Prior knowledge:
By secondary structure, this protein is an alpha/beta fold. It has one domain (13-152). It is built from 5 helices and 7 strands, in the order E-H-E-E-H-H-H-H-E-E-E-E. It has helices at residues 19-26, 47-55, 57-61, 64-73, 77-82; strands spanning 4-6, 33-35, 42-44, 85-90, 104-117, 124-137, 142-152.
Amino acid sequence: xxxxxxxxxxxxGKQNISWCDVEKYLRKYDGMEIRxxxxxxxxxxxxxxxxxxxxxxxxxxxxxxxxKAKANLVQIIPEIxxxxxNRRWVENKDKKHSEDAIRGWYRxxxxxxxxxxxxxxxxxxxxxxxxxxxxxxxxxxxxxxxIVNIKKxxxxxxxx
Length: 160
């Protein structure tokens, strides 16, 4: 599984991410369908994704570098979904999603990297992240829902 690189930092800062701007950026993906290379799944994106991505409980709790990583991850959504691996099915247990995820959920592992500048010495380094892409399944298809569980790796992975 390869790391998809975020080449440019569009959303700067760690404390005051403009989530409204992130949501606007995500809207360009509305109506897009992405084929996952490993499983052949066609994953659709609609307006529910941009809303959930920005306003979810998970996103509201993010702080610091992880919030910045999630905000900038929006630039590589098609690539990250195409390269996602380790698909697993999870039963829907939430009444809130009884219709939009009637067939359950898929969870995929994703990996990405982002260059960051050390504010003390001005040097750049690369941070590596793992996360989970969540897709809801219903009678119409598979729809991207959110990206959660973003974790920064402690050291450079050996497979880079």
